[in-house]
Fold each of these.
Amino acid sequence: MDLYQQLIIEHSKRPHGEGLRAPFGAESHHVNPTCGDEITLRVQLDGENVADVSYDAMGCSISRASASVLHDLVVGQSVTEVGELRDAVQHMLTSRGEDPGDEEVLGDAVAFAGVAKYPARVKCALLSWSALADALLRVA
Amino acid sequence: MTTTLTGFSADELSALRADFPILSRSTRSGNPLVYLDSGATSQKPFAVLNAEREFYSTRNAAVHRGAHQLAEEATDDFEAARAGIGRFVGVPAHEVVFTKNATESLNLVAHAFSTSTVYAARGTAPDGQRVDPRFVLAEGDEILVTEAEHHANLVPWQELCARTGAVLRWIPVTDDGVLDTASLASLVTQRTKVVAFAHASNVLGGIAPVTQIAAAARSVGALVVLDACQSVPHLPVDLPSLGVDLAAFSGHKMLGPSGIGVLWGSAELLDAMPPFLTGGSMIELVRMDRSTFAPAPQKFEAGVPMTAQAVGLHAAVDYLTELGMDRVEAHERSLTARLLDELAELPWVRVLGPLDADHRVGLVSFVVQDVHAHDVGQLLDDEGVAVRVGHHCAWPLHRRFGVAATTRVSFGPYNQDSDIDAVLRGLHRAHDLFA
């Protein structure tokens, strides 16, 4: 089973950037109604760049690790770069395994490539990315 | 309630399993399928598959219309199914209403209340219909459910309250995962018009004290609605002896096809209820400005009904009757008892609901410490094991226990001891990986 990469297990046990912090520009709350997983996510911008993403996530290892990797990847990036990254993550996750992901573009998020083969888990991996996109829309 | 009956012998179980073609498939992990999600939907024996195929191959027609031979034969099959399914739960054919599923059955009942309430407020009902006061709600009247309900027996009542001004109340669940019947005395009042609850919880597995709750409801003249989805497929159930007024169950959870459910009510009560879905088949006389309706059960069966599904469900209840529901119960209970014993040995597993198999139907929900149910389910899937993970359409109950999700193992007549071994292998893997 290629789903539970060591990187995912590590991030799920010790998530990076966890906890809700202030100040923040916008907050979003997303729920996966099929399993009850929830995330509250805050984003703080500094000009065009993401200064901080803080979150409170309740969910499975995939959704928590995804939020943790998201935090590592997007802090310090421009809003445009974050949008491109999110599109690349979503493309990989919804490809049913056709798109293995480009590590150059995705960094650690490429560890989630295996999730694409388990359609029931794609939403888990996308939950934090959807919450981020939502928060960025609100802050703009 | 100690049962002296035994389940199936090894040979019987092996023959029974051979009746279910899906049980011979393997899964993406290469492991054979271990199906432990019958609480969500059951698998189907050849008897059911063949009955549907035979119907479509030889007698298919729209029932209750047309004078041709096929229409007559299809109608005979459909009505024979109604009688057979009724017999299975101890009720006459004319008290069996076919619906899409139990969810629709419960919505039908909720809508009988709101429609009657609207008619009463307007002071008029369509031709030939009387407004029965048992179905009329006033502002502040109360609807009593339980904290353990499946969303199907909760949301329709919430919506009914929103439409009528009635107030929803609920019987709490104790820390031990049983209904707090001590609260009945204060919760059942002169304002209570409906008491709706599950015969067996789809999460906790516990069997409700039906006669006790029904008696309390009757003492104030409230109608009693039973969600029998998790009992009828697993225990011998004689609906009239339970003291309830209406009961709902789904065909697909009892070896039958999807797309068919049942609502049972006494003929007198069904007659007092206005229709839910309207249109063809359910009418008596139609003019441009108004219509009158057929007697129940046809009054509740608008449109061309699910005939092949009724034929399939008929075959399913015949199959279950042949197995013997008392033996199905004993078999599933012995599996449940062993699973509970095994889980009790794992200090990192917490079981929800009664810990004694005698007070349960054949399903067990649990939490694995430090491992989310989705991850538990994924590792079980890798063992070929299909279980349900999540809130099982009982989100408030999960909140009550402070958990986002649980893992649920639910048995059918076809499960075997080695299925439990596969569950335990997956649980140990999940614990080793995440804990």
Amino acid sequence: MGEAGYPPESAQGLPHSGAPLSTRMQSSPPPFFRRGPSLFARLGFFSLLSLMLLYADARFHYTEALRKAIAVVLYPLQQFADTPGKAFSSIGAYFVSQSFLQRENDRLTHENFLQAGQLQSQQALIAENQHLRQLMEMRERAEQTSTVAEILYVGRDPFSRKVIVDKGSSQDIEEGAAVIDDTGLIGQVTRTFPWTAEVALISDREQVVPVQIVRTGQRAALFGIGYDGALDLRFMPINTDVENGDMLVTSGIDGVYPPGLPVAVVSNIERNAAYPFAKITCTPAAGPNRNRQVLVMSRLTPLPDYPVVPDAKKGKGKKARKGG
Amino acid sequence: MQSRMIGKLGGSEEILLPVRPLYISITLFVALMINLLPLTGWLLAVRPDFVAQVLLYWGIHQPRKIGFLPAWLLGLAMDVADGSLFGQHALAYSVMMFAAIALHRRVSMFDMRHQILHVLPILLVMQMIVLGVRHASGDAFPGWWFFLSSIVGALLWPATDLLLKIPLRQRHDPDEA
């Protein structure tokens, strides 16, 4: 194409310059008659098909089965694409120095020792808690199982904040399960495939986490705003008792997230009398870019159904709720 | 300038081997694999969409050997791999393929620098479609860096051309064999 780009080729090409034009890259001559539907018809057909899929996915989520089928086909390719990165990191891990390993081993032994002490006291506390709850005839806190998963890659969709982990529905990962790392809540499983699962991070725009301020016990909703490192605590009145550095943990009233998981720390509060709510920004406690291993919690035992008056019409139900 | 363009009317000056459909499939497959690489951070932001790049290349250079169906199917595959809205890439790639086939005679007349100026708007329109679809479904604009991918892709157009042509070069002079 550009003479400057390929000097040897154009020099080589010179003896062939008498060759017919048809021996260009397009080796076959164009057909005499146009066959098949026109270009516009084909564009219309495929655009319409895509738009139908888009509508079915965005409004009704009808396409999940098809998505899963394609995901199964793509899975080996994704595994293959991950191998260079994995090989690179394993080569790097092979060449760590002995002093580094020694230091890490010391640190881990120390941590293990401290945590063993905490665990012992915690076991006693769990037993005591169970006993007290039995005495008070409260619902027992469900024992939660969890699965260790590894983050395969960060979602490539620039419009959402997601990561893909290497455990899926074949390892009993359920949609809606909470995902944590060693410092706190990371997100929630939003889509499961046979061997992988998609986790929406709490920083995703569509993620809302019901939280509780540890210091005051007040409940609130924490919204993702679409980028890392910041979360919004919305709909808090201006005079709310919130301070910088307040710890937010999951409240557990949603029946999705187990209670007590650290979520974020309040980092900035703007109280402007012109607005009904304070603008409270928080820093997430955990982040998917700290380490690759995450823990996928099992779903909680579902909460009892919302109490409804048996055969009441709409108006009556409203009244009953008001009365209660 | 005018005379140079007329000189270019023949398109490529080198004589290349005929492109087999198998070769097109292999290049598309490799592009898909590169798109699936687990990149993060700024590398992910500036990464061009390689599948779009290769589809566009074959759409312009071999419009009779590639059509809407591969573009549409690869679009669906990208939607699943990215976890995005099902059909957004399929729609964008279909429109891109339309532009490539409709403009293929015009684009292949120009030299590399001027081809970039044709490829850039096509890639930008493709991304605008993705943006429009996501906007309609309620997502916010991610930032101007979103279009970096197209710009990098257009700048890499000469490299794409160079790479995809390597296996098509003639090994030896057919007159001497």
